[in-house]
Amino acid sequence: MQTIEIIVGITLLVFAFLAIESKKIINSIIYLSILSMLSVVSFVFMKAPDVAITEAVIGSGLVTAVFIFTLFSIKKAGDKE
Q: What is the C-alpha R_g of the chain?
């Protein structure tokens, strides 16, 4: 079980680095979503299912949707000018 936890932790760090260093914003949003889903797995490993469910709903779903909506709104506003 600890091996899987270590692999998930290392993968979390990799996706966090990719989210920071990505040149395209949409790729950063995708990496943040993956990071959030991996944190859900890590919360399950820590036996915190309520926190995992909250992170899955808010972190992965809602925040990703708000980021994508905001990104497309910015692009539409930029096209009008």
A: 15
Q: What is the pTM of this model?
A: 0.83
Which phi and psi angles does 22 have, rounded to 5°?
A: -70, 140
Each residue's pLDDT, cut to its tens digit, for the chain (81 residues) gives 789 999 999 999 999 999 999 999 999 999 999 999 999 999 999 999 999 999 999 988 899 999 999 998 987 777 765
Residue 55: helix, strand or coil by DSSP? Answer: helix
3-class DSSP state of 47: coil
* Nearest residue to 8 via CA among 61, 45, 57, 33: 45
18 within 8 A of 59, measured Cβ to Cβ: no
Q: What backbone torsions phi and psi does residue 42 show, to the nearest 5 degrees?
A: -70, -35
